[in-house]
Amino acid sequence: MSPLFISLEGIDGSGKSTQTQRLVEWLQTQGRDPVRTREPGGSAGAEEIRRLLVEGDPDRWSAETEILLFTAARRDHLERTIRPALAAGRDVVTDRFADSTRVYQGATRGDLRGLVDRIHAAAIDVEPDLTLILDMDPELALSRGLARDSGEDRFEDFGLPFQQKLRAGFRELASEAPERCVLVDASTDPDTISGTLSQIVAERLSRR
Ligand code: TYD
After folding, report:
1. Which of 34, 138, 146, 186 has its CA at 20 to 30 Å from residue 11's CA atom?
2. How far apart are CA 140 and CA 82, in angstroms?
3. Which residues of the chain have pLDDT under 50?
4. pLDDT at 108
């Protein structure tokens, strides 16, 4: 069985973690052995870097420093979790990957996309086989995100205009890479969304 590397992307509070879990469960029902993971994090070292990134003041780091920290975390995640899983023939389902850096750091605070792309090419240079982008109105997503009050609200704290830029950035990415990215309406109920996601993945698996 050739393994599938899948990422879920979207603005804060778009329901990615629920949908990541459901997709993993659906893959198991298909007789597959998926690994569920997330960014920033997904390996012991990357989880340590995560704390530096998601806690504290919104202006704690410059966007440039953030790019380096997210990329350091991603490199560790790739070496310790993603590559070994794929090499063992297991699907990987990650809650966020490089598209989050392209959008959060590359498109929202100054035009740093060029820097993001150069650092990605030098240190990561891998894309998922399939990226599912959960698309929804930031106002709805933001109310859900802040309601969780997890202490990890540094990016939510940037506010609504920031989330609107993020949504536009993800939609733009979907049109830049239509072979890899699928935009999914995430404003409906969780069952409808998970049904759509498993259909998309089933279709990808049937092509292999
Ligand atoms: P995440 O845990 O996915 O938060 P949420 O569940 O609220 O969506 O990600 C933490 C924050 O880190 C989130 O606000 C998005 C941000 N982020 C970046 O800015 N760049 C990145 O490369 C990644 C992976 C995440």
Report:
1. 34
2. 32
3. none
4. 78
pLDDT tens, 68-106?
A: 999 999 999 999 999 999 999 999 999 999 999 999 999
Range of the domain at 102: 5-206
pTM tops 0.90: yes
- Ligand 1 within 6 A of CB of 101: yes
The residues, any chain, with a CB within 8 Å of residue 104's CB and separated by 6 or more, are: 66, 155, 166, 169
Find the 153 Cα to ligand 1 centroid distance in Å: 9
Determine whether the shortest distance from the Cβ of 70 to ligand 1 is under 6 A. yes
Q: How far is the CA of 61 from the centre of ligand 1 (A)?
A: 14
Ligand 1 pocket mutation pick from 12, 150, 158 by most atoms within 8 angstroms of CB = 12
Q: What is the CATH number of the domain that holds 56?
A: 3.40.50.300
